[in-house]
Amino acid sequence: xxxxxxxxxxxxxxxxxxxxxxxxxxxxxxxxxxxxxxxxxxxxxxxxxxxxxxxxxxxxxxxxxxxxxxxxxxxxxxxxxxxxxxxxxxxxxxxxxxxxxxxxxxxxxxxxxxxxxxxxxxxxxxxxxxxxxxxxxxxxxxxxxxxxxxxxxxxxxxxxxxxxxxxxxxxxxxxxxxxxxxxxxxxxxxxxxxxxxxxxxxxxxxxxxxxxxxxxxxxxxxxxxxxxxxxxxxxxxxxxxxxxxxxxxx
Length: 250
Known about the structure:
The chain is of the alpha/beta class. Helices cover about 35% and strands about 25% of the residues. The protein contains seven helices and ten strands. It has helices at about 45-55, 90-100, 105-120, 135-150, 165-180, 195-205, 235-250; strands spanning about 5-10, 20-30, 35-40, 60-65, 70, 75-80, 155-160, 190-195, 205-210, 215-220. The strands form two sheets. The protein has a six-stranded mixed β-sheet, with helices on both faces. Strands 2-1-4-5 form a four-stranded antiparallel β-sheet, covered by helices on one side. Strand 4 and strand 5 form a beta hairpin. The radius of gyration is 18 Å and the shape is globular. The protein starts with a strand and ends with a helix.
């Protein structure tokens, strides 16, 4: 087991009554898994990612990484955001090396890592480009390269393809699976939040459905279809319909 959330709740203190976003979440994530978290808006999916990353502490319960309780940010995680989160005054290479420099990686090593992951995500030739010169898909490739460059064991992705056109999204999903399966890369485990049920069934070993307010895990479904997955296959359609039906009932 790589990561565990043990009876975790998250409660925000407000001017009014406390707001409970997540209630009694228990989730185990194993090494080499691809897990997708789906659910309606406001059910606490992104909050779950931030708890896994250590960006916020749980109000109740514990979060464990490799059987040890977490305290603070998990440096073995990296996050890819929906809105790219690039610094507009930095080039592609500079955006990627920023996180490495924050970890006191020597500049020469940081530049080598940036060059490697720029190649991995297909951005050769754009090293000196600024975000304003890039398409949405290219910006997200920069965000992915920045996350991969710190060579995390666990890659967290918060709706990374929702702002992209359908063709770009399809291409990036295929490339993400190739990166995850590459034995030469450090990242072995992916946890991704998505609203897109088809996307979740296409990518994941397991689909975890979070629903309700406060959010609770209402289903944890193993996707027992070999890859590459055919979206027109009956088995694929059954999984999509099953997850959709469960979500509609919540």
